Amino acid sequence: MLQLSSCAIFSTDRDCQDDVSLSFASLTLFGGNDLLYDSTPETGKSRCKMVHYVKMEDGKVMPIQEMLKSIERYNPEHLKVIEAYVEEQARENQYDLEANLACLKLYQFNPNLLNLDITYIILMKALTNFPHTDFVLCKCLLLPAQMNDETVKEIIYLADILEKCDFSLFWSRVAKNPENYQKINGFYDSIRKFVCHVVGITFQTIEKGYLMRLLGNVEENVLRAWLKRYGWKEENGLVTIATQEDSIKTKHITEKIDFENLAPLMANCL
């Protein structure tokens, strides 16, 4: 059963109000649960965050983030709403770890409701948040049925490769099934951000060609964009990440010793 309701979504962001044409949102009924969402494209200055609302049994409506802080996060009737929210994260390049963990926990309590496609999205979104430990948290909530799935095994292997910083192997594995990762908007750039994080704390200078391979065999224009983003300089085939002068900081040390503290020592020297 599908119900449509004319509910306007208002933004407090001035840029969003100016640049985004806010349309009526739809309330879709999923077995007694309402999902409220709006579609707001990228603006030149900012991005309006999509808002989800969940309808409780008592008729009260609350944002999904508030629901996740309450006991209602364990209500399986809200699973369809959370799954739709997970899919939106993939489309809109957003990320909500608490919602994703709640979804996996509901699968634990209700194995008959397991959705492997949603599991893939949650794990791949966790990959995009390296070096944080989100992936470990998600992995700990997986059921045997999920762990034995071949795609899940591959994603776990990719996480292991990322932890080892074997980026060349990572990109070669991703290239075998690119359609799986293209579903996650911003997946490649998020991994490249992690690569740049590792490079930034590891190298002072790095060969330009090697850096391009670490970033996934990117083109020259893509490399220049990442160099500009991090303020790195390229000259004669070498990319300067940092110099010793940037990391060396002078420190003045002042010690204050009272004469009373020295008196016993001087007396022993007599």
UniProtKB/TrEMBL annotation:
The species this protein was found in: Anopheles albimanus
UniProt keyword annotation of NAD present: no
Molecular function per GO: ribosome binding; RNA binding; translation initiation factor activity
Biological process according to GO: formation of cytoplasmic translation initiation complex; regulation of translational initiation
Function field: Component of the eukaryotic translation initiation factor 3 (eIF-3) complex, which is required for several steps in the initiation of protein synthesis. The eIF-3 complex associates with the 40S ribosome and facilitates the recruitment of eIF-1, eIF-1A, eIF-2:GTP:methionyl-tRNAi and eIF-5 to form the 43S pre-initiation complex (43S PIC). The eIF-3 complex stimulates mRNA recruitment to the 43S PIC and scanning of the mRNA for AUG recognition.
Family matches, as InterPro entries: ARM-type_fold, CSN8_PSD8_EIF3K, eIF3k, PCI_dom, Transl_init_fac_sub12_N_euk, WH-like_DNA-bd_sf, WH_DNA-bd_sf
Key words, A-Z: Cytoplasm, Initiation factor, Protein biosynthesis
Binding partners and assembly: Component of the eukaryotic translation initiation factor 3 (eIF-3) complex.
GO cellular component: eukaryotic 43S preinitiation complex; eukaryotic 48S preinitiation complex; eukaryotic translation initiation factor 3 complex
Annotated localization: Cytoplasm
Protein known as: Eukaryotic translation initiation factor 3 subunit K
Major site of localization recorded for this protein: cytoplasm
Pfam families, alphabetized: CSN8_PSD8_EIF3K (PF10075)
Family annotation (Gene3D superfamilies): ARM repeat, domain 1, Winged helix-like DNA-binding domain superfamily/Winged helix DNA-binding domain
Protein's UniProt keywords contain Nucleotide-binding: no
